[in-house]
Amino acid sequence: MMRLFWTLILIVLYNGYSSEGVNSTHPARPKVVNIGCMLSFESLVGKITKVAVEAAVEDINSNPDVLGGTKLNMITLDSNSSGFLGIVEAIRFMETDTVAIVGPQSSVIAHVVSNIANELQVPLLSFAATDPTLSSLQYPFFVRTSPSDMFQMAAIAEMIDHYEWREVIAIYIDDDFGRNGIATLADQLAKRRCSISYKAAMKPEATLADARDVLVQVALRESRIMVVHTYPSKGLEIFSMARYLGMTDNGYVWIATHWLSTILDTSGPLPPDKKENLEGAITLRIHTPRSELKQKFVSRWSNLTREAGVTGTSGMSTYALYAYDTVWLLARAINEFFNQGGNVSFSKDPRLTEQNSGSLNLDSMSIFNGGKLLLDNIFKVNMTGVTGPYSFTPDKNLFRPAFEVINVVGTGFRKVGYWSEYSGLSIVPPETLYSKPPNHSSSNQQLHSIIWPGQTTEKPRGWVFPNNGRQLKIGVPNRASFREFVGKVPGTDSFRGYCIEVFTTAINLLPYAVPYKLIAFGDGHNNPDDTELVRLITAGVYDAAIGDIAITTNRTKTVGFTQPYIESGLVVVAPVKQQNSNAWAFLRPFTPRMWCVTGVFFLIVGTVIWILEHRLNDDFRGPPSKQIVTVLWFSFSTLFTAQRENTVSTLGRIVLLIWLFVVLIINSSYTASLTSILTVQKLSSPITGIESLVNTKEPIGYQLGSFVRNYLIQELHIDESRLVPLNLPEDYARALKDGPSHGGVAAVVDERAYMELFLSSRCQFSILGQEFTKNGWGFAFPRDSPLAIDMSTAILKLSENGELQRIHDKWLSGIACTSQNTKLEVDRLQLKSFSGLFFICGLACFLALLIYFVMIACHYCQYYPKSESSGESSRSGRLQTFFSFVDEKEESVRSRSKRRQLEATSVRSIDQDASINGSRIDRSEIYSNRVVSFGESV
C-alpha cells in the first residue's frame, strides 16, 4: 500500500511539473476571447454592418482552424451616434476584459474612444471612421480597416483637374469628420493648383431651413462645382433643397463623397422625387475587385439580412464587405498573437486608481497587457478577403486603395471609370494596371462620358459671375501722359481711351452680365506705379485692374493676365539728324576695312594670274615695267570685265572665273547701297541700339511709374544714377533735345506703344535698333480667375473679327510725322558679309599656285637633270638657274630640250661607228667634228 501511495504522489508531482513548464512556454489558449463592437444600430451603415460582423463571427467560430478552438465572443453595443454614449460604451467594454473593439463607425466617436484605447492599450479597428487625422501618431491604437478619406479626396481633386476646373465649393458637416475631410480636399486641390473658393459648413443637427440658408449663400458664389461631404441622412436633404432652389440645373456640377453610393447600394430603388434630386450627380464607391469569396458572400446576403430581421435596407454596400473582413483580420491577428505566446491578461491602471472617486468605478478598467503585441500582429496580417488582397502599408493605410466613379442617371446609376493611387483615373479596373508601370500623365487620365445636371453631355464651364449684387472693383491708372491709351474724363468718374474701349467691348461679348465699377488709381498729375496697382489686387483692394499694364514675369507671379491685346516691347528713342549727300558719298557703301581688303584682293588675284600665265602667254611677258602695269591693269579691269589680256592656262582660267563671281557680288552690293544712299533721305545717330547705350556713361530717361526702371537696373545692370524719370511727352522731348551736355538725356527707353505715339508728331527723334524685349499689355485678375480666361477668349474673338484693329486705328492712328518715309542710316557693308567669298577666292589662288609650282618643279627636274648641275659652284647658282627656268618661256625650254635630245642621239651613233670599225680615234675629236658638221648644216 505504501508503495502504491508514493507512486501516485510521484505521478501527480510529475504531471504538475510538466503542466507548469508547458504553460510557461506555450500558454493554453482560452476557450473564449471577448471583442467589442460599437455601432449605431439605427443608422443606415449600422444596420448593414451589424449583419456583416455577426456573420463573420459565426463563420470564424464554425471553423476551428482559424483560432485553434478558441471562440470569439462579440459584445455589440449601440453608440446611438453620440460621442458621450460612445465614451460610456467604451468604458463598459473595458470592464469585460475586451482585447479589441470593432468600430465605431463615426469619426467623431472614434476621436474620443481612441484616447481610451490608447490609455488601456486596446486596439480599435474601424471600417467606417474615414477621417484622415485618425491615422496620426496621436492615436497609435487606432486601426482603419478601409480606405482613408485622403484617397477619396485625392480622387475628387484628380477629377477637378481632369475637367480643367480651378475652384470648388465645399458643403460639409462641421464636425471632425467634415472639417478634416475638407481640409484634406484643400491639400489635394492645392497640389494641382486648384482651390476651395468657399466652405459652406452646416451644423451636425442642421434642419432643412439651415440647409436652405447655407445653399442660398452658395448660390451667390461664382463657382458651380459643389463637393458634398456629409452623412447619408443629411446628404439627401441637401440635394432636395438644392433642387428646390434651382441649383441642380444646367451648369452645375455636384460631386458627392461615398455616402451617396452607400445609399444607392443599400436603399434599393429611390422614390422618383429623390431620384430627380440626384440626377447628373457624381459619387465615389470603394472599389472591391471581383473574386470567388466576394461572390459567395454576396449570394448569402439576402439570407443574412432576412435572418437578422433587417427591413427597408436589404442592399449591401462596401461598408458591409469591409466590416466582414475587419473581423477576419482581427481573428487572424489573435491567432498569431497566441502562436507567439501571447496571454490574455489585464492589469490595473495606477493613474485610474488614483483618480477614483464617487461612483465612477474607474478602477474597474484594466490595461490589456498584450495590447501592443496584438496591435503589431494586426498590421502584419496579409490575407485575401471579400474585398480582395488585404494588407497595410508602412504608414498604416490599406495597400493600393481604389474607387469607382459613379454617375447618377435615369432610374439608376452607371460606372464611368475608376481612380486608384497607382494610376489615377482610368476606364479599366485598377487591378489590370498593376502589372504595368504607373502612369499619371494627363493624356492617360480617362473617364467615360458623363451626363451632367440638366441632362447634357457637354462639360459645364464650372463657374458663373456671382449673382450677389456686388460690383467688381476695377483699378484704372489715372495717367498724366499718353491719355490716348487710358485717361479720366475731367469732372466725371468715367474713363476713356484705347484700353478702356477694348475692355468694354470684350466684356460685352461674355455670355453673362458682369457688374463693375472703375476706380481711379493715381492723382492724375504723375503716372501711377502699375506694379503697385497689380499688388493691390493680391491685397484685396481691387478685384481686377485694366489699362496699359505690361505683362512682366514678376507680375505674373502674383496675378493672372488675359491674352495680350497689344504687343509692346522696350525700344530706345534718341535724337537723329539728317545726313545729306556730299562729294564723298560714293565711299559710304563700304567700311574702310572692306575697301582695303577688296583692293588687296584685286592685287593678289592679278599677281596670281600673272604667275600662272607668264610662261605661256605673251601678253604677260616683257620688260618689268610693262609687267607691273599689266598686273595692275588686269587686276582692276576685272571690276568692269574689260581686261584686254586673255588667259590661256587652265589654272588661270579657274582662278579668274571665281574672282569674276566675287566681283559680281561686290559690284551688285555696292550699286544697291550707293543707290539707297543717293536717293533716300538718311538719319544718323551715335546710338545704334540698347547695346551702344548700355556701354556709354550718359543718362537715360524712362517713364515715371513704369517697370522700365527696375528692368534697366536688374537685367541690364545700368547704374541707378544714370536713370532720369520723365512724366510727360513734353518732358521726353525737352530732355532729348537738351542732351546730356545741358542736363538732358542721351536716349529714352520705353515701351513701343508709347514711343510710336510720341514719335508720330516729333520727327527729330527716332527708334534706334531693334526691340529688345517682347511683351504685351493685358488686363489683370486674381490668379486662376475664371473671368480672366473668358476675357482672353473675348479678346481673341475681337482680334479674329477685326474689331481690335478698328479700335486701334480709332485711337492711335493720328497724323503721322511728315518724315515717316525717312530711314535711319543703316550699317555700312561690313567685311564679315563678304568674308566667305574672299575665303573661297583666296583658297582657289593658294591651290592654283601650289599646283603650278609642283608642276614647275617636275619640269625643272626633267629638263635640268641633277648631273648637269652638279658642277655648280654654289647652291645660289642652282637657285638662280631655277628662277631663270621659271622666267623663261615654256616654248623656248621645249626647243632647247629637243636640241639636247638630238645631240645625245648623235653621240650615241658615233660610239657605235667607232666600235664597228675597231679604230682608236679620239672621241672628243670625232665629237668636235660632228658638232662642226651639225653647225654647218644648220
UniProtKB/TrEMBL annotation:
Pfam families: ANF_receptor, Lig_chan, Lig_chan-Glu_bd. Residues 473-814 form the Ionotropic glutamate receptor C-terminal domain. GO terms for molecular function: ligand-gated monoatomic ion channel activity. It is found in: Membrane. The keyword Membrane applies. Disulfide bonds join C763-C817. It is a multi-pass membrane protein. The chain crosses the membrane at residues 592-612, 654-678, 837-857. GO terms for biological process: cellular response to oxygen-containing compound; response to wounding; signal transduction. SUPFAM superfamilies: Periplasmic binding protein-like I (SSF53822), Periplasmic binding protein-like II (SSF53850). Keywords: Disulfide bond, Glycoprotein, Ion channel, Ion transport, Ligand-gated ion channel, Membrane, Receptor, Signal, Transmembrane, Transmembrane helix, Transport. Residues 1-21 form the signal peptide. GO terms for cellular component: membrane. The keyword Metal-binding does not apply. Glutamate-gated receptor that probably acts as non-selective cation channel. Belongs to the glutamate-gated ion channel (TC 1.A.10.1) family. This is Glutamate receptor.
